[in-house]
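Predict structure. Chain length: 116.
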Amino acid sequence: MNATPHPSHRILVNEPGLLLAQCRCCGEIELYFQTITMALNLTELYALIRRLDTLSTASRYVVGLLDVRDTVVRAGFQAIGLHLTEGERDQLARGLNLACLRLDMDLLTKGRLSSN
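Prediction complete.
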């Protein structure tokens, strides 16, 4: 996905098939992966990374996205998910981790990152 930078968003990751951008005003992370488009806050972004990291080794993966967003209670059902191959899962996990590293570097360079 080759994105044209928009002044309201900062591109975190821009790879073929994967785009992560952060809204400059609210900090929300927009994820575009294959046919999935999601808006995530930082807590949900970290939850998705943890979910992908805890999946057992398999040739095909199904990731319930409502698990990540903690909306099952509000929605009353779990119908949204990703069907991924091992390569797609790895690509998504690498991209999400890269986005987190860039966010951390941004905090570090602005002197707002905790020394802990």
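Summary: Helices lie at 42-53, 65-69, 72-75, 86-109.
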